[in-house]
Amino acid sequence: MIDKIDKESSYMGGDLPFPVEWVKTQPRKVEDVLSGLSVEEQVRCVLGLDPQLQQQLLVLSEKAVEVTQSLPVEEVYNLIKEVGKEDSLVIIAMVSPDQLQYIFDVEWWQGDKFQPKQALDWIVLLDQCQDPETLQWFLSEDFDQKVVLFQAFFKVFKKDEMTDSYEGVEELEHFTPDGVYDIFFKVDNSKEIRKLLLLLHEKDQNLLYNLLEAVIWYPVTLTVERAYQWRVNRTAERGIPEFQEAMGIYSSLDPETLKLKLPSLDELPSSRFKLSPKYPLAHLDETLFFTQCLAVIESEHRLETLRWELVYLANKVIVADGYELSSMDVRQRALRKTLGYINIGLELGAEGDLQKGAALLGQVWMQSFFQVGYEQLKQVRSAASSFIKENSSYIENFISATDKERLGALVFRFPQVMEKIEDSFNWRDLKSMKDIEVVRDFLDRWKFYSRFVRQCLGLSESTFPSLPGQINGSDTDESVNLLTLVTTALAQYVLFKRLSCEPLAEVAAKSFLEMIFLPGIFQDEARLCNEDLFAAFEQELLKAPMAWTGSDKKCLQDLLQECAENLEAQFGSLDLTRPIDWKFTQGLLITGREANEQ
């Protein structure tokens, strides 16, 4: 990340009051520095650091509990998710009951469905913490949530005339805290639950009995519904909407929203010092226009509200897309998608002008940019869908596997592009107008290819199954792609001065290779293609009645260049005086030996 953007390691508007490497190399010195800082100053130090560093810094603070509980809960939750809950027990043990409630609200529910396994995992985990806030959470509000939790874990019976019918408890582990209530565990990990019950019995016997009575008498479905509504109310206050509201981000932008006043910090979720989470900007791509515009913004107030808006938008994306709020991978992908769509919308609105972009960020809600960006994606999807609908059965005969995947990814609900990372390919959301332009160019090229193969190469849909012989000595037609068709047509033109895609006999193919390459000076030197032969072939193709446009001619030149590069890669280093094993080459349609013998 860029320092001047996010001031992510900021300390009261400046840098950390010590070199960041001291956290690992000089922890005692860091302790001394932190001891002289106020809680707010320490919170500002922690915000925006890498989550691993955040945890290490908090552990070094004498006021660790107070600092942790003063952080925005979203920042604390992100720390726990990034580090891993098993590795962040020291942080979990320090969170406040309200922060713990937020964690439970996110972790224990998938939509409107309560997830008892996740809840049990957290109860077991909290048992490993030193002095956790679990008990304090049980003593706080939302009675229904605790009833739902206990109903998922055990059955309760009471020795009286109304509830002494013990049915369905065979082979279930039994426990009683007082000799009156009989508890039968429905889960395997009962030790931690039993410990929690005994702790409740010691601290607030009345609450425990009320909970056990509720487990007996409360209807399960209605209790879950009530608990869910309480959960919805709490999460809405932290910017996690229900599905219908979240889907609004994918609606068309209402111009009236551009007139809405930006939110103030008082209208946004609160933390002790009214500081916003800074983790959303950890996923910023330094090359994005949005990133560059942020660096120009001087208003700290706007940066605070903007970060809250990013948290809100990412939450809406997760909910609207139907994913789990608790998934770390989902959270990261949602943030990258959010930032990318915003960047596209901002690029369009500012027309690439940095100062104009910064001014717009100071005037317009982030969701408006997101919606404008998504509108561009809808146009891409619509164009790709129309092209596939009109041409799929035809181009299926010669589109490469890679281009077929790329084309298919454009008609996803959220179009994706392929990105090469080292030796592998990865699919990602579009994030810039450059991505949009690349996709549009890809579609334009395939519109050209479809016309070109039909009108210049003379191949109708019925022609492909009748291509005689075998391809490259193989029994499959996997090598019949656009590049192979054009290269074969080139060979036919060089050899026989005709435009045809009929497969070549092996002897003819070898003659073509001898003609298409310029003679090399050295024996082992890779040979280059004869540009004059390519130019003559290009001129012959341009005679086709295709109403050639400037972009058509550019596409043709690029295609012929690709053919030349493939010929040089596949055949340029071969010794043409020796037999060629055609099945190990790509780029020419060759009739098989069986076809030749016939």
Describe the secondary structure blueprint for this structure.
Blueprint: H1 3-6, H2 22-25, H3 27-35, H4 39-46, H5 51-59, H6 64-70, H7 73-83, H8 89-92, H9 97-107, E1 109-110, E2 113-114, H10 116-127, H11 134-138, H12 143-153, E3 154-158, E4 173-175, E5 181-185, H13 191-203, H14 205-217, H15 220-237, H16 243-246, H17 289-294, H18 300-320, H19 328-350, H20 354-361, H21 366-395, H22 401-409, E6 416-421, E7 424-429, H23 433-455, H24 482-496, H25 506-516, H26 531-541, H27 550-571, H28 593-597
Antiparallel strand pairs: 1-2, 3-5, 4-5, 6-7
End-to-end CA span: 67 Å
Strand order of the largest sheet: 3-5-4
Rg (CA only)? 33 Å
The residue ranges in which pLDDT falls below 50 over 5 or more consecutive positions are: 1-14, 469-477, 593-598
Q: For the residues shown, what is the average pLDDT?
A: 89
Largest sheet: 3 strands, antiparallel
How would you describe this protein?
This protein is mostly helical and 598 residues long. The chain is built from 28 helices and 7 strands. It is elongated and about 100 Å long. Mean pLDDT is 89; it is low at 1-14, 469-477 and 593-598.
